[in-house]
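Memo to structure team: turn this sequence into structure tokens by end of day. - J.P.
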Amino acid sequence: MAYTAPRLIDVNAKSRLIRDCRRLLIFGRCVELEHPEVYKGFVERGYCPLSVCLEAEHVNMVGFKLAGILGRGDYEEVAVLTVDGSMHCTQLHWMVEEVFKFMRLDNSRRRHFVIHEGKLVEVSQASVKASRFLAHVDGLLRKG
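Reply from structure team:
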């Protein structure tokens, strides 16, 4: 099996691949091969997939590209899908939050999903934000 989804970094901001989409799926590239059933579920629900591998692409480049796409299109939702625990993929969640923050976009227009032990789990924006601040996470863990 080979990768079939377009890479976000390679897609023109007004590409015909996403021009008529209402929902974007920004996902860790490995998900397509490692968890095809989860990936296909999003595509079947009408998400237009754009893959990212932050081992191969810099988060700042991907974020700037996403900002260009969001600034030129009208999307109901942006969903992020990654494998839970991947140090590279975690950055995708943080990057989407950062793009929405500096573009002052509506908070309700994004969702975060991880694949944990083969199961799809939606995580809150607050969890994504908290995960960036290690001192805060440490305090939460110490409190039990």
